[in-house]
Structure formats: structure tokens, C-alpha cells
Design brief:
Layout lengths: L2 H27 L1 H20 L4 H6 L2 H16 L4 H8 L4 H4 L4 E6 L11 H7 L4 H4 L3 E7 L5 E7 L5 H19 L13 E7 L1 H20 L9 H20 L19 H12 L5 H11 L11 H32 L1 H6 L2 H10 L4 H29 L7 H21 L4 H38 L15 H55 L3 H32 L7 E5 H11 L1 H6 L3 E5 L6 E5 H18 L5 E8 L3 E9 L30 H11 L3 E7 L2 E9 L5 H30 L7
Parallel strand pairs: 6-8
Antiparallel strand pairs: 1-4, 2-3, 2-4, 5-7, 8-9, 9-11, 10-11
């Protein structure tokens, strides 16, 4: 580049710098005018704020608060909704601020106080028929019907004119109806058959109006919060921006002043567009106004005083110089499209560089740019894929609000970005709508495919294919798939149970036939022999056999009745206080002969104290007897049997362990079923009902029986809960004991009377 070109460029740079500096100084020179405009507007607002606000306006502002208060006060009285739930779901309301200015109470249809919030005198004033008798400057009545609907709203008060009362009634009725049908109030029980009355004295009305006036002017009336909001600021800034734009467009027309070919202006079309969008999207355009405001207020630099104004001026000058310079740079960069025309879109746009690259005509710089862009796109796609997968696997078993919140937040972020784009937001909305359509189409298509998989599994299950696998990731329907697996498992269990029951029914018929036929056959045989036998010794022997077989048959039939009643839950339980330690010792003593015959060494580990429990003593005795008798039948002779009882906090554990004489090859889950015996050869006497009866009696007393085996070790674990004695049962037993004592005393007195007067004895 020759010296002449360099000099011309320097001249252009100098002019641009001077122009930017002048615009910055002009902007700064208007600071005093901006401050004056703001102060004047705020002074007018303050003067307006000092004017009194009519009572009607202030009272109308709390119509919604009182309408919500009806529900809160009713719940405070009725407690139909838990107060914690009210606070959690409904939260703190404006009513909590408003009610401090009121006397209020809840009355029923008979005029009785329900809330008991006020004393009787105040309650009478609230219900007074006339405004003068009540003595309230403002009073509001809300009446609810028996069906929980709002019947009427009445407004009166000594401070209100009839016209104001009418207007307020209309406003309060509208707010009450709005709250009544609002979903926001749905978590709280609706008031029923009550009247809620609010009363405000003249003193409280004045205090409330004053507070309302202050808040109103503070938040709603003040016209300008900073100098940036004044028309003076805008009327100065925008003309200067137009001057900068005009300079950027016109200066290159003079060859000597053209600086557009400098490298800093040789940027792709998308760069200045994105920079401007970023500025507006992040509200950086508001930053200059805030700095100007802090400058005129003297708060830009902490402790700003004499001598610091220069630093503040430098900061402001630099700020405006940068802003105007950024505007000049962007316009100059885009002005190249006038000079280059069609070539601009080919050489100065990232879009065309990407297109050329994929067509195979890209330059080395294009390829480098594509690699960088590809990395950004790849990371963006990974992030979006992660969010999409999270959306696909939403769990609706969680609180619905959480799911909805996720979707709303994502949509809010997108729409917020679009809103920041201002006029460009229309184009962004079009792009967003297209992307949303494509996303929803793909999302719905995926849902349809996964629904088909779910429907296929459901149909297989309905057709009875219980072993058909229910697998695969079906996204949103995964919770339903989990439930289907549970249903499948339940069906299989039910089918297996039914098959087992059918098999057991068959075995039941076989076993019952066998167990009944054997003693019956013996009875018939020996009866025939007895008829023809002449030898008395033989006849006596036959009679003994008949007696044993009859007793055997009787025991079998009694066991059948017991297990039948237990299975049908028709057993009548007779609960009482039972020393379970003493009871199991008694069972052991009464079966001592059988234990000795079986050559077994019983080792007892029982508590050394009484353990009183609420049990059916007969049924519990039968439980222990069946288990001990079972041990004497099937335990290996000359081995030890361990019976241990331990007391826990809420129950009592009883363990019985013995070494089996035969191989333990049965199913421990089925051994407690009816007519199932560990002795499959049926060489030992027994009905196969002993463990089944014991299990049924244990379960009737809310306990459990678990049978387990390890090699030849047979173990029965009993858990009996500690049940509390019902008070009425305790009283009944006490009455029975007292009645029994009285009967014994009467019997003794009768015996004494007879002994003293034998002539009265009928015998």
C-alpha cells in the first residue's frame, strides 16, 4: 500500500475519531437537562401523591384479599383441611397483611360465634342491623349457603356514601366469584352455611388509606426511576445514532476518507448481527442509562466528591465513545454489501462458506472454520439429545407439578430469548415454530412406536402368554412396563398356585381315601372276625384293635374338622392372658412318655420368668403339641432336640430343631399344606394335618410359622406377636373374676348355713 493511501486512511480515522468524540461530548452535555426533566417529573408525582385517595379506591384494592380470607378463616375454624397443607399449597396471602386493620368473625346461621376471634361486644357490633349501631366506618358481609356457594355480599359503613357502597358491593361480589371459581383455591375446603363479617373503624380506615396511598404512589405513580427513562435522554441519543449511521454510510463515498477496507471491518455478515442481538438480548443497551443516572446522582464512584468529577467524566466519555464506535463499526462492516454486491454474500457470510465446504469447493480457511463450528454443533447436539432423552423418560409417578415445571421452564427460556430480540423476534418465532413442529412430530412418532411395543406386550399378556418377555426401552411408558411386569409375575404366581391347588386336591382325595380306608378296613375285618370268634382271649384282643382303630379314625376326622374350620376362618378364638413359658413346659411334661419312647434328649432354653401374652390357650397348646409330637415321630433316636424361646420388643420367637431320621427331600413350602407328610412312604401314623393345623392356628393369632431344613436338620421357627389386651376384654374378664368370687362366697355361705341348720337340708 502506497504512502498516499496510508495518509488518506489516517485522515478518515481522524475524522471518525473526532466525530465519535463530538457525539460523546454532546451526549454528556445534556446530563443537566436530563436530571432537570427527571426531577421535575418526580416533583409533580410527589405533589400528586400528597392528594388524598378516596376511601373507595383504597377499599376496592383489598376485595380479592377478603374474598380469599373467607376460605382461610373457615378452614381455621372447621379444620377440614390440615393447616400445614393450607400453608404448603396455598401459601402466605395478602389477607394476612390486610386483616390487621379489621375486626372479623365467623358466624353460623343462628348468629353464634364460630371462630371465637372477638369478644362478645365486638361480635354484637359486627352483627348490628344499622351502620350507626355498628359504629364501623366500613363493614363487609359474606354469606355462604349450606351447599358451600356464595349467597350474598353486602357493604355498608358510616364513611361511605350509598353510591360508594353500591360500587364496592359490585367490586367485592366480582372478586368473591372470581376466587370461588379459581383453581388456586381448590386445595381448601369451601365455606358452608356461615357468614363472615369484616369491620373497620374510622381510625383503622384512615391508617389503612394512608398506607395504601404511600404504597400506591411508590410503585404505580412515580413516572421516572432514572434519567434513562426521560424523553430528554431518548431525544438526544437517537439523533446522534442517526448521525453515526449516516457517517458510516457516506464517508466511504470520498475515496480519501474511506476506511472500510481496514481489516477490522472485514468480518462476516453474521458477526455484527449477532453482536447487536446479543446486546439487546442481554439488556446491555440499558447499561448506559444506568451509568448516566448514577453519574448525575453522584453515586457512580463511592464517596464521589470534589476532584472525582473528572474520573466520572472520563468513564462516561469512554462509554459513549465505545457505544458510538460499536455502532459505526457494525454499519461500516455491513456497508460492504453495497460495494461488493453479489460477491458480498459469497465471500462475507459464514453460511456460504459452509455451503462451499460441503460442496467440496471450500478454501483452507473455510475448512478451519467448519471444524470449529462442527465442534460447537456437536456439543450442542449432545446437550439437546440429553434433554430430549430426559423428556422421553419422564416419570409420571412423581408429582405432576414437577414434570410440568420442567417443560414450562424450558419453554420459558426459549421464549425469553425470543422476546429479547424485539423486532427480530418475529423471525425467531417462525424458526422456533418450525423446530417445535419437527420436534413434536418426532416426539409423537417415537411415542407411537413405543406405544405399539407396550400394546403388543399387553396383548400377549391378555392372550395368556405369561412367559413372553416384556423388554425394551419404551421411554415415557417405562413405569407402565414395570407395572405390566408385576402383573405378569402376579398372573404366573396365581397360575402356579392354581396348578398347585389342583394337584393338592388330587392328592387330598388320594390321601384322605387312604387314611380313612385303612382304619375302616381294619374295623370291618375285625368286626367279622369278632362275630365268629369263640375264644374270649381272641375276642378281647379284637376288641382292643377295634378300639384303637376307632380312636384313630376319630382323631383323623377331628383333625379334618379343625383344618376345615381354620381354612374357612370360622374358628372362634378365645383370647386370654397366657403364660407361654408355662404352657410349653406343660406340653413337654404331658408328652414326656412319647419323648422317652422316641429316645430323644430335649434341651430346653426358656425364659426364667413368666411371659404373659394375649393368646388362645387351647389353640396355642395344640400348636406346641403338634410340633413336639411331630418331632417324636420323625426325629432320629438318641439325638438331641433343641427348643428355644426368646422375647423380642414386639414379639416372641420360638425355635424347635431336631435331626431327622429320614432324608429331608420334601419342599419346605409345601410341608405345611394339608395331607403333606415328610414320610412319603407313610410308614408312620399320622394324618398329615399336624403342621397344617399348627400353621393355621399360628396365623389366626397373627403369627408366622417357617419350616427350614439343612442337610438332616429340621427347624421350625414360630413368631407370635405381642398383642395388646382390648380394654373392654380386660373389663369383661375382671367382671367374670368378680362374679366368680361372689359365687364362691355364696357357695361357702350356703355350706355354712346347712352345717349350722341341718334341719334345712332337704337330704
Amino acid at each position: 500500500m502506497d504512502t498516499k493511501s496510508k495518509n488518506s486512511r489516517k485522515a478518515g480515522i481522524i475524522i471518525v475519531v473526532i466525530l465519535l468524540g463530538i457525539c460523546s461530548l454532546i451526549m454528556m452535555s445534556q446530563y443537566d437537562g436530563m436530571k432537570y426533566a427527571m426531577d421535575s417529573a418526580n416533583t409533580e408525582a410527589t405533589e400528586d401523591a400528597e392528594a388524598p385517595i378516596p376511601y373507595e379506591s383504597a377499599l376496592a384494592s383489598i376485595s380479592h384479599d377478603l374474598a380469599e380470607g373467607n376460605y382461610l378463616l373457615y378452614n381455621e375454624y372447621a379444620r377440614e383441611t390440615d393447616p400445614a397443607d393450607v400453608l404448603d399449597e396455598y401459601g402466605q396471602r395478602d389477607f394476612d397483611w390486610s386483616k390487621r386493620y379489621f375486626d372479623y368473625e365467623v358466624f353460623n346461621s343462628d348468629g353464634e360465634q364460630l371462630l371465637k376471634n372477638e369478644d362478645e361486644a365486638t361480635a354484637e357490633n359486627l352483627q348490628a342491623n344499622s351502620e350507626e349501631d355498628a359504629g364501623y366506618a366500613f363493614r363487609a358481609y359474606y354469606t355462604f349457603s349450606l351447599e358451600g356457594e356464595l349467597s350474598s355480599v353486602q357493604i355498608d359503613g358510616t364513611a361511605l356514601s350509598p353510591e360508594e357502597e353500591y360500587n364496592l358491593e359490585s367490586t367485592y361480589l366480582s372478586s368473591a366469584q372470581e376466587v370461588e371459581y379459581s383453581e388456586d383455591i381448590s386445595s381448601i375446603a369451601s365455606p358452608e352455611d356461615i357468614t363472615v363479617i369484616y369491620g373497620m373503624s374510622q381510625e383503622n380506615l384512615n391508617a389503612f388509606t394512608e398506607a395504601y396511598s404511600s404504597e400506591y404512589w411508590e410503585y404505580d405513580v412515580e413516572p421516572y426511576a432514572s434519567v434513562g427513562e426521560t424523553p430528554y435522554y431518548q431525544d438526544t441519543l437517537w439523533p446522534l445514532c442517526y448521525v453515526i449511521i449516516a457517517a458510516a454510510l457516506l464517508l466511504p463515498l470520498r475515496r480519501k476518507l474511506d476506511i472500510s477496507e481496514m481489516k477490522m471491518f472485514d468480518v462476516p455478515f453474521e458477526v455484527p448481527i449477532l453482536v447487536w442481538l446479543f446486546v439487546y438480548a442481554t439488556t446491555l443497551d440499558e447499561l448506559p442509562a444506568r451509568i448516566v443516572d448514577m453519574t448525575v446522582r453522584g453515586t457512580l464512584i463511592p464517596g464521589m466528591g470534589h476532584g472525582m468529577e473528572i474520573i466520572a467524566s472520563i468513564i462516561n466519555f469512554a462509554m459513549w465513545f465505545f457505544i458510538f464506535g460499536l455502532l459505526f463499526w457494525g454499519v461500516t462492516s455491513l456497508r460492504a454489501m453495497i460495494r461488493l454486491k453479489g460477491a458480498y454474500w459469497r465471500d462475507r457470510t459464514l453460511t456460504m462458506k459452509l455451503i462451499r465446504h460441503y460442496r467440496g469447493h471450500g478454501t483452507e480457511s473455510d475448512e478451519e472454520m467448519v471444524r470449529k463450528a462442527g465442534g460447537i454443533i456437536k456439543r450442542s447436539k449432545a446437550f439437546l439429545a440429553k434433554q430430549y432423552d430426559a423428556l422421553q423418560h419422564l416419570d409420571f409417578r412423581e408429582k405432576t407439578n414437577r414434570t410440568i415445571l420442567k417443560i414450562v421452564i424450558i419453554n420459558y427460556i426459549i421464549l425469553a430469548i425470543v422476546c429479547f430480540l424485539w423486532y427480530y423476534g418475529t423471525f425467531a418465532l417462525i424458526i422456533y415454530s418450525v423446530i417445535l413442529f419437527l420436534f413434536l412430530r418426532k416426539y409423537v412418532k417415537d411415542l407411537q412406536e413405543k406405544y405399539k411395543l407396550l400394546l403388543k406386550s399387553t396383548n400377549q399378556l391378555a392372550e395368556g402368554h405369561l412367559d413372553a418377555p416384556i423388554e425394551g426401552d419404551i421411554g415415557l411408558f417405562n413405569p407402565i412396563q414395570d407395572e405390566l411386569k408385576k402383573i405378569q409375575k402376579g398372573f404366573k404366581k396365581a397360575v402356579d398356585e392354581e396348578v398347585k391347588n389342583e394337584r393338592m386336591k388330587t392328592e387330598l382325595v388320594t390321601n384322605v381315601s387312604h387314611d380313612l380306608r385303612t382304619p375302616l378296613t381294619a374295623i370291618i375285618t375285625y368286626t367279622d372276625l369278632l362275630k365268629n370268634e369263640k375264644d374270649e382271649e381272641k375276642r378281647k384282643e379284637y376288641i382292643d384293635v377295634l378300639e384303637r382303630k376307632s380312636l384313630r379314625l376319630k382323631v383323623l376326622i377331628e383333625d379334618l374338622f379343625e383344618i376345615s374350620k381354620a381354612a374357612s376362618k370360622s374358628v372362634v378364638m378365645h383370647y386370654m392372658k397366657v403364660d407361654i413359658v408355662d404352657l410349653i413346659k406343660q406340653v413337654g411334661l404331658e408328652n414326656d412318655s412319647k419323648i422317652k419312647e422316641a429316645n430323644l434328649d430335649f434341651r430346653w432354653k426358656l425364659p426364667e420368668y413368666k411371659l404373659i401374652m394375649w393368646l388362645d390357650s387351647q389353640k396355642t397348646y395344640r400348636i406346641f403339641e403338634n410340633l413336639i409330637v411331630n418331632i417324636t415321630k420323625y426325629a432320629m433316636p438318641h439325638t438331641r432336640v433343641y427348643i428355644e424361646m426368646t422375647e423380642q420388643e414386639n414379639d416372641v420367637h420360638i425355635s424347635m430343631k431336631n435331626v431327622s431320621a429320614a432324608e429331608l427331600n420334601f419342599d419346605t413350602e409345601e410341608i405345611t399344606d394339608r395331607f403333606v407328610r415328610g414320610d412319603t412312604s407313610r410308614n408312620t401314623e399320622g394324618s398329615g394335618l399336624g403342621l397344617a393345623i399348627a400353621k393355621s392356628f399360628i396365623e389366626l393369632q397373627h403369627g408366622t410359622l417357617k419350616i427350614s431344613t439343612e442337610a438332616d436338620l429340621f427347624k421350625a421357627d414360630i413368631i407370635l406377636p405381642k398383642m395388646e389386651i382390648p380394654p373392654e376384654e380386660e373389663q369383661r374378664q375382671q367382671a367374670e373374676r368378680e362374679a366368680e368370687t361372689v359365687r364362691e362366697q355364696e357357695t361357702v355361705q350356703t355350706d355354712l348355713s346347712v352345717s349350722e341348720h341341718p334341719e334345712n337340708n332337704p337330704i
